[in-house]
Write a structure and sequence with these properties.
about 350 residues; TIM Barrel; two-stranded antiparallel ribbon; globular; binds zinc ion
C-alpha cells in the first residue's frame, strides 16, 4: 500500500494558509482536518508512588504548587490543541501518578477534555499494586472500579480501564500469568460487562508480549469478554506485522503508541494493516509524559522548550498517510474504541 508523502513543510504551509484565509488562527482552526482528534494513550503527570500510601497522601494537589504544574502543562497541551487535538485519554494508573482532582483542574484551565482511567498497574513485579489488590476478590476489585466509573473520584469520572499485565520478569517469561494478573483481568471483564467501558491493557515488553497476549486473550475468551472493548497497547514492542494482523483478526483493537520514537516504522505497520483491510481496529498515540513530578520538584518546567510531546504525530506521522486514514486513526477509531 502506497503512502502519500506530504512533506512536513507543506503540511504546515497548508495549515498557515487556512489561518491567513481569515480563520481565527488558534487551537483546532490551524488544522481543520484533524479538528476533534483524540490522543488515546497519553500521560499528563507521572510519579512513581508508594502503594502503601493512600490516594490522599499521594495527591499532587496536596504536595505541589498547582500553578507550577499548570505552567509546565499548559503550553504543551495548547500546542497539541492548536493542531486539532480535543481529548487526552490519561492512561496513568493509581500509584503511577494518577491524579483525578489535578486532571479536573487542568481540564478546566486548559480546555483539553481529559479522561482518567481506573484499574491497576501489575507490571514491575507487581510492586505498584496496593495491598487490597492481593486481599480482595475479582468482584470486590470490579466494584471499586465500577464505583470510579459511575460515581467518579476527585470530582471526575473514570472513563476506561487501564491494566498493566506483564507475563515476563526481567525479560524472561515464567510460563503463565500470575494469579494476581488473572484476578485483575477477571475484575476488568466484570467491569467492562457491567459498565460498557473499554479495557486498555499493556501486554508485556519485547520478547514476551506475544505469549502474554495469547494468555490474556485465552482468559478473556473464557470469561466471554466482548473483544471489541479490548485494546492491546504498546503493540510496537513486537515488530511483527503478522502478529499485528492476528490481534485484529481475533477481534481486538491494536494500539501503536511509540510514535514519538518510531514515526516511519509505525507508518509502515499501519499501512500493512490497512492493506489487509484492517484499519478499522487500529489506534495510534504517543506514550510520553507531559510533566514528571520530579521536574516540578526541580522547577525545570517550563524551561524545556525543546521537549515537544505529542506533536510528532501531527507534524511528521500523519502527513505520511492518506487523508482518509488520518481521519480514521485520529477521529473515528478513538470514538469507536472508547466512546464519546
Ligand atoms: Zn503509557
Amino acid at each position: 500500500m502506497k503512502l502519500t508523502s506530504i512533506h512536513r513543510r507543506d503540511f504546515n504551509r497548508l495549515a498557515l494558509a487556512g489561518c491567513l484565509a481569515g480563520l481565527a488562527c488558534k487551537r483546532a482552526d490551524a488544522a481543520p482536518e484533524m479538528a476533534r482528534s483524540v490522543m488515546v494513550h497519553s500521560h499528563i503527570f507521572i510519579e512513581h508512588q508508594d502503594p502503601m500510601k493512600t490516594p490522599e497522601e499521594t495527591d499532587p494537589l496536596r504536595r505541589y504548587d498547582y500553578d507550577s504544574i499548570l505552567r509546565a502543562v499548559r503550553p504543551k497541551l495548547e500546542a497539541v490543541m492548536a493542531l486539532g487535538c480535543r481529548r487526552f485519554l490519561e492512561c496513568t494508573s493509581p500509584w503511577f501518578g494518577r491524579a483525578p482532582a489535578l486532571m479536573k483542574r487542568l481540564a478546566e484551565d486548559t480546555g483539553m477534555d481529559i479522561w482518567i482511567c481506573t484499574g491497576l498497574r501489575g507490571t514491575a513485579k507487581h510492586r505498584y499494586l496496593p495491598r487490597y489488590a492481593f486481599e480482595e476478590s475479582d468482584r470486590q476489585l470490579a466494584d471499586r472500579w465500577i464505583r470510579e466509573i459511575r460515581e467518579g473520584i476527585g470530582g471526575i469520572r473514570a472513563r476506561f480501564i487501564k491494566l498493566g499485565i506483564d507475563g515476563g520478569i526481567n525479560g524472561a517469561y515464567e510460563g503463565r500469568l500470575a494469579e494476581i494478573d488473572q484476578k485483575l483481568l477477571r475484575a476488568a471483564v466484570i467491569t467492562v460487562k457491567e459498565t460498557g467501558v473499554t479495557l486498555a491493557c499493556h501486554t508485556g515488553d519485547k520478547g514476551h508480549a506475544k505469549i502474554t497476549f495469547a494468555e490474556i486473550l485465552a482468559l478473556l475468551q473464557r470469561e466471554r469478554m466482548p473483544l471489541d472493548r479490548f485494546v492491546v497497547v504498546h503493540a510496537q514492542h513486537e515488530e511483527d506485522f503478522a502478529w499485528h494482523e492476528e490481534i485484529v483478526r481475533a477481534g481486538c483493537w491494536i494500539e501503536f503508541d511509540g510514535i514519538g520514537r518510531m514515526v516511519d516504522w509505525t507508518a509502515e505497520a499501519v499501512a500493512s494493516l490497512a492493506g489487509k483491510g484492517l484499519l478499522h481496529r487500529v489506534l495510534v498515540s504517543e506514550d510520553r509524559p507531559v510533566c514528571m513530578a520530579k521536574s516540578v520538584r526541580a522547577g525545570v518546567f517550563p524551561e524545556q522548550p525543546d521537549y515537544r510531546p505529542y506533536l510528532r504525530i501531527y507534524e511528521e506521522f500523519l502527513p505520511k498517510l492518506q487523508p482518509a486514514w488520518r481521519r480514521q486513526l485520529m477521529i473515528e477509531n478513538p470514538v469507536a474504541a472508547f466512546g464519546d
